[in-house]
């Protein structure tokens, strides 16, 4: 799915400033991140897509629900932040 979604030199910039470049790094980062959760639910809205010749920059709003499972008193947490994807 990563190869169908991103160009080979795509960059994913996370809210904490961490950058993943390329299919392998993007997929590895997502696998590590999602391994923490028993379940997740994500909703993305308000896409802004800027095109500059052969480059596209996408900004979205993301609301994410994460079920950590192993923390009974905090089994679900709600996060809201903006993502920036460039390819």
Automatic annotation (TrEMBL):
Signal peptide: none annotated. Coiled coil: none annotated. Pfam families: SnoaL_4. InterPro entries: NTF2-like_dom_sf, SnoaL-like. Residues 3-66 form the SnoaL-like domain. This is SnoaL-like domain-containing protein.
């Amino acid at each position: 799915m990563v190869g169908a979604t991103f160009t080979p030199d795509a960059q994913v910039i996370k809210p904490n400033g961490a950058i993943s470049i390329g299919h392998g790094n993007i997929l590895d980062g997502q696998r590590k991140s999602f391994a923490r959760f028993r379940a997740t639910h994500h909703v993305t809205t308000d896409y802004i897509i800027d095109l500059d010749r052969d480059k596209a920059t996408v900004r979205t709003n993301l609301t994410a629900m994460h079920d950590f499972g192993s923390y009974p008193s905090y089994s679900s947490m709600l996060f809201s932040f903006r993502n920036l994807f460039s390819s």
